Fold this protein.
Amino acid sequence: MQWYYIADGRAHGPVSSSRLLALADGAIVRPGTRIWRQGMAGWQPFKTSETVQVPPRTCSRCHGSRPDNEMLTYCDQPICGQCKSAFLQCIRDGVSLAEPPIYAGFTIRALAWFVDAVTILAFTTPLLVLLESLAPDSGDLATVILSWLVTALAGGILTAVIQMLYETWFIGRHGATPGKMACGLKIVRPDGSLLTFRRAFARYWGKVLTGMTMGAGFLLLTIDRQCRSLHDFICDTRVVRNE
Ligand SMILES: [Zn+2]
């Protein structure tokens, strides 16, 4: 809130509400001094500090209400004292300031993972059954073992290819896999933009690496402030809730 006041026959300002109150304390602005701010019909006499009591503002980060003079303003966004340090950290990290993201935690991501796993199984199971039926089930022991190994290897490759296409296509095209969509999540870059197909493809391989850590790479998200798992660190991605 910016104020103007008349002293020594001319207008001064703009000054903040807290500055105006300080001027009143210093007797530069006195009862009767004419003051004005945008939205007022005309100059009005300053009476008491009540005159400049302005409605509290809403913090753009936590949406809490605070008195105007306790707010920091950055690019027209009011930031309260409690959110200030986290906000400044976001600026240092290069995180988009337009919409404060809500990072997706362990439970919702595990749920999304489960939905995806079931969806992929629904695709792969009929194919694996078909593959199994093609393998010869008679002959000597060596032939049976060999055909079992070939079937298992083909099944593994088929599952991996389907998973890779699933992740790359859905994330590159829609910003989320069906499991993440169902859970109201999306995968973004630090600036809030969606991933390219190339990065979505790289992220799939990052997940393969995470898979090799026996879950430790995934659990990283429980200790990271931005809920990043290993593949999010590798590909510089964040999983956030849809606003
Ligand atoms: Zn706040």
Notes: The pocket of zinc ion is lined by residues 59, 61-62, 64, 80, 82-83 (CB under 6 Å). The first helix runs from residue 17 to 25. Residues 36 and 110 are 56 Å apart (CA to CA). The first strand starts at residue 2 and ends at 7.
